[in-house]
Amino acid sequence: MVIEIQISVSGQGLHEITREIQRRVADAEMDAGLCTLFLRHTSASLTIQENADPSARRDLEAWLNRLVPENDPLYTHTSEGPDDMPSHIKAILTATSLTIPILQGRLALGTWQGIYLWEHRRRTGSRNLVLHLCP
Amino acid sequence: MVIEIQISVSGQGLHEITREIQRRVADAEMDAGLCTLFLRHTSASLTIQENADPSARRDLEAWLNRLVPENDPLYTHTSEGPDDMPSHIKAILTATSLTIPILQGRLALGTWQGIYLWEHRRRTGSRNLVLHLCP
Amino acid sequence: MVIEIQISVSGQGLHEITREIQRRVADAEMDAGLCTLFLRHTSASLTIQENADPSARRDLEAWLNRLVPENDPLYTHTSEGPDDMPSHIKAILTATSLTIPILQGRLALGTWQGIYLWEHRRRTGSRNLVLHLCP
Questions:
Q1: What is the pTM of this model?
Q2: Contact yes or no for A2 and C53 at CB 8 A
Q3: Which chain C residues have a beta carbon less than 8 Å from that of B93?
């Protein structure tokens, strides 16, 4: 089963999508299986990270922004704005797709794991995901 | 088929799990298919790396420790110890899940590829994996 | 269905393989499903990146070469040449496998997404991929 999903984002940062994905998995009434998430963009990414303390996510964002700053003189691909080339670099360092097993009808996430769409651009709008479920 | 697996770890570093996973695949008696490994933690990760010369793994560990040191003044998420926030960062730079095709009843790894659980914390104990096999 | 594919590479850089993979998916005549690509090497990787402006790919390559330079005094694994250890590090920072859903008989890539084999060594020759398709 393949489902297209739109996710609203409001600027740079980690947007949690665990509940949205969990709901789609529950709707499929699949006891065991595999859930694949695929992001159709090259300037945002997917990640699984700690869902408890927001300070961990703020530090992830700050650390990655320091490693991949805007306005680096190395960049030649600058026509789409100062946040564009850093976004592509951040995307290759993180993930475009995630695969998560389904156990007893639910995503087999650990206690502290949440699924995040990591928006790397300063834009507000929506991003397109494709969800695949197999038994 | 979905199987839960516990892996013992003894401190930071790359712990090879190739044989353990290969054995589970053999038990499934599947000629061709796809094996997915998913780690239920946010301060450790999975990686596929050179299994021949241990110096390559030592250099990977040393390089990543230098890129993501402990006690960076940037960190605000410090309540769980100095090795906690670096572990989350290392986890987002590596992988939480791996997908490996099965060919002629075995994982289709290259000659020099081994599967590793990369423990980023200094802890000793066990980590939980979920293995999914599909034809 | 599992297929072995050989890809020719001519030195370091991002080699686009989208058409080759798209063709294999079309041949399988699968309306919906999941395509997994797995690279059987530890000194090259797979990535999905912007396929429009070549300057973005040149910047990705230049940025990663600066982050992971040759001849770093940290390296002890040096017997296979100065481009070997940087290649392993670049491989763990990017991806060894990609999973892409199939929608209406085609890979569900976004408008600007291309699939690339990222060769990290200076070698010319071929690399081995394994493609798995499931409904």
A1: 0.97
A2: no
A3: 92-93
